[in-house]
Amino acid sequence: MWLYVLKVSVAILISVITALSVSILLYYIYCLQSTGVGEEINITNISQSSREESTGSMGTGDVDEDVVRIEGLTLERLITIYRHCILEYHYYNSSSSNTSYIIVEYSVYDDRLDGENVHKLILSYTANDNIRANMTIWFSQDYREVIQIKMYDRIMTGSYAKQLAYQMIYSIDKFLYSATRSDLVFREYNSRLEILTDGWIIESVAPQVISFKGEEITGYYIKVVNMNDTNNTLKSMEGRIAKLVNDQYSFIEYKAIYKNGDYALLTIKDLE
Length: 272
Description:
By secondary structure, the chain is an alpha+beta fold. The relative contact order is 0.21. The strands form 2 sheets. An 11-stranded antiparallel β-sheet has the order 7-6-5-4-3-2-14-13-12-11-10, covered by helices on one side. The chain has helices spanning 2-18, 25-30, 75-78, 158-180; strands at 66-69, 84-93, 98-113, 116-127, 131-139, 146-151, 154-157, 185-189, 192-195, 200-212, 215-226, 234-245, 248-258, 263-269. The longest helix has 23 residues, at 158-180. Residues 3-64 have low confidence and may be disordered.
């Protein structure tokens, strides 16, 4: 259901943004969540040998049980932990045979501005080759204040610059959070996952140590199948979850297949 809502919202936003004039800069930034026609990609880095089939009960006894909710990521939190990241989201429409996509990339650097140590964030956003936005934002050391921005080779400061920066981040955050979370609920114990959402089963699951630029992150490969959840438009979902932020699991990669033949692909890569 959550991916269906994302699909609808993104489709609506593309029609709005396409009609915008270049001169309407604020509205363009605010409506960054867009999609259109792109190229199909396949989910990557899921090794068949790492998959461990899971059937039936996952065991009983005196064990510690922890409910796992797959939370969404936000750009605002990611940039304070990771210096670089690329997120790619693709949606294939089986009716039109078109693939829409969104690509978000950022890099964070240490910099100096007016004699002070600052962080410089370079953001780029692309949707369907014809919608692009680029912005450089200079933050204070604690990321609490936007000092200045650069957009279209123009340096801006003051309240106007802060408004543009926060609208850019907020627009990306809304999309990023929706794309990396899930309504499915699990229980984790003894390095296992058991699905708690009615109507779903785990077809396979395997603990994984996921490496990004040498950093090892706890995670799982999972494949779940919708058996009789009639309220959910998803048919199945396969991918990886990892603890990137606040010791909470989020999707970093998946292929979600819908009952109507559509599918969505998410990949977070080059995290460092």
